[in-house]
Design a protein that fits this description.
Elements (H helix, E strand, L loop, with lengths): L1 H9 L6 H14 L3 E5 L2 H12 L6 E5 L5 H9 L2 E5 L10 H9 L4 E5 L9 H10 L3 E5 L7 E2 L2 E2 L6 E5 L13 E5 L2 H10 L4 E3 L2 E2 L11 H10 L3 H18 L20 E4 L3 H10 L28 H9 E4 L7 H13 L3
Parallel strand pairs: 2-3, 2-4, 4-5, 5-8
Antiparallel strand pairs: 1-9, 6-7, 8-9, 10-11, 12-13
Helix pairs in contact: 1-8, 2-8, 3-4, 3-7, 5-6, 9-12
The structure holds pyridoxal-5'-phosphate (PLP).
The site of pyridoxal-5'-phosphate has 14 residues, from helix 3.
């Protein structure tokens, strides 16, 4: 409330000192040279790709199990999505699939650190992309703070994109997003792209721009929440570890991801009888969800455009995945209720 009061009494609401302050703090938290605040995470992917030089007609690779956000951004540029399959256990992009995409001629690859898991092969993928002139954007919307060998996601590729939608590990009280990069010219280009292409008021320096600004109120709120992020992630990790060790149900496979590389944005189990389990939980008033029920290449809007494409693991996972409650404010008793409900499920 104090921060909100400060913004209101300051009388400055868009692209001011609060945004600059948050950009600096978030860049330094991640270990990136630059952060640029944007209106949301989907814009962050799109403007990140545009700033790296992706344009209409280019092919851009993405996984198809991450909610269609990257695909939406790719299509908004007029680029063509190239779909990669994911690993059955980690549910994220693999080095092998990135190589397949690169050999097919993609200009850029978007990899998603899905459910809070830093992609195990991200360093390998980043090295390969840089050697082979393939641009790499990491979508970190679900993985704020996740790290591998002390390096946080959003610092491996050319650009990292973030969403601050309220349910994210670092969430605002409304929409927000950002990109991170070590490349100064990419950062400068995104600063133009987020505000009509202006290099100064009313002078349009680049085309393909829009209005995509993080506002002062959300930036002030995010600056308050950022110092709490590691503690909130630790709490999520505790819940995930509790589920891993206490869920004991032959028809359920847990993610079994632990350590700093998994910030437990979502705790996603697998079961061949997923729909029955979901119904069982519903009768006990336990919320669950499927992230995500339709892979991108099967979305109805495509009207069969990708009907030839088969992504074996992605298509199998869609039928088996189920997200159990996992958030920092949940207490141990609530987690135990979920565990008991899963364990008592008579399949
Ligand atoms: C993996 C992923 N990428 C991108 C986005 C898009 O972010 P936003 O909703 O802020 O546009 C989201 C979430 O909404 C997401 O989960």
């Amino acid at each position: 409330m104090a921060s909100i009061d400060r913004v209101i009494s300051g009388g400055y609401f868009v692209l001011g000192s609060e945004v600059r302050q948050f950009e600096q703090s978030f860049a330094s938290y991640l270990g990136a040279n630059h952060c640029v605040g944007l209106a949301n995470g989907t814009d962050a992917i799109e403007l990140g790709l545009r700033a790296m030089g992706v344009s209409a007609g280019d092919q851009v690779a993405t996984v198809a199990n991450a909610g269609m956000y990257a695909t939406t951004a790719i299509l908004a540029i007029g680029a063509e999505p190239y779909f990669m399959d994911v690993d059955l256990d980690t549910k994220v992009a693999t080095f092998e699939e990135v190589v397949r995409a690169a050999k097919a001629g993609v200009k850029a690859v978007v990899v998603t650190h899905l459910y809070g898991l830093a992609i195990p092969e991200i360093q390998l993928i980043a090295d390969y992309c840089s050697k082979n002139d393939v641009l790499l954007l990491e979508d970190c919307a679900q993985a704020h703070g996740a790290q591998i060998s002390g390096k946080r996601v959003g610092t491996f590729g050319d650009v990292g994109s973030f969403s601050f939608y309220p349910t994210k590990n670092l969430g605002a009280l409304g929409d927000g997003g950002a990109i991170t990069t070590d490349n100064q010219s990419i950062a400068e280009k995104i600063r133009l792209l987020r505000q009509y292409g202006w290099n100064q008021k009313y002078t349009v320096q680049v085309l393909g721009a829009r209005n995509s600004r993080l506002d002062e109120m959300q930036a002030a709120i995010l600056s308050d929440f950022l110092p709490l992020l590691d503690r909130a992630n630790a709490r999520r990790q505790e819940h995930a570890a509790r589920y891993d060790s206490l869920i004991c149900q032959p028809n359920v496979t847990g993610p079994h991801q632990a350590g700093a590389s998994y910030v437990a944005h979502l705790y996603v189990i697998r079961s061949e009888k997923r729909d029955a389990l979901r119904e069982h939980l519903r009768t006990l008033n336990i919320g669950s969800d499927v992230h995500y029920p339709i892979p991108d290449h099967r979305q109805p809007a495509f009207d069969g455009r990708f009907s030839e494409i088969r992504l074996e693991n992605t298509e199998r996972l869609v039928k088996e995945i189920l997200t159990l409650p996992c958030y920092p404010e949940m207490n141990d008793e609530e987690a135990d209720c979920v565990i008991a409900a899963v364990n008592d499920w008579a399949t």
